[in-house]
Amino acid sequence: MATQIRIAQDEAADAVLSSDPFALLVGMLLDQQYPMEHAFRGPSKILERFGTLSPQAIAEAEPEAFADLCSTPPAIHRYGRSMAGRVQQLAVVVRDEYGGRAETIWQDAEDARDLLARLRALPGFGDQKARIFAALVGKQLDVRPAGWQEAVGPYAEDGSYRSVADVVDAESLAKVREFKQAAKAELKAKAAAAKAKA
């Protein structure tokens, strides 16, 4: 991956994301109920404390010890211990189904439908997270299998600031945050309106 990822907005953490496909996958896994740039700093913290991001080594790590390492402040996530378990589950899938090479998930996908199916099958990846990650590898790594735009939907739009796939610097990070806050406010307003009608 020669591309320079800048999602974490931290030089060392972004270097890890740029050089290690499994790190990028772990960052996406951690991106929930937590500020996105902090989520994507998680892989760098694991590397620093555990010494490797090898899916095999992480899969085989003693769960309690790995959870301790992930939850030590600054933790990899607000829910450090439970996310440590998710990271290990993800490592097991990458080790067992993709020969320890995370990039195989997107590089060997037959088409966009296959890519989304592979991503949705990963622990902690629902439909929306799968689409956002497919948008991320499409926009930032130029991996766009046949049908990519249709499968990814609005996240594939050029010039949009909908998700982590659009974060390339501090300015775009702020725009994505604004978009997410506006979308959240809109959902809240709709829910309140529906409640008032009921």
TrEMBL record:
<dbReference type="InterPro" id="IPR017658">
    <property type="entry name" value="HhH-GPD_base_excis"/>
</dbReference>
<dbReference type="InterPro" id="IPR003265">
    <property type="entry name" value="HhH-GPD_domain"/>
</dbReference>
<dbReference type="Pfam" id="PF00730">
    <property type="entry name" value="HhH-GPD"/>
</dbReference>
<protein>
    <submittedName>
        <fullName>HhH-GPD-type base excision DNA repair protein</fullName>
    </submittedName>
</protein>
<feature type="domain" description="HhH-GPD">
    <location>
        <begin position="26"/>
        <end position="123"/>
    </location>
</feature>
<dbReference type="InterPro" id="IPR011257">
    <property type="entry name" value="DNA_glycosylase"/>
</dbReference>
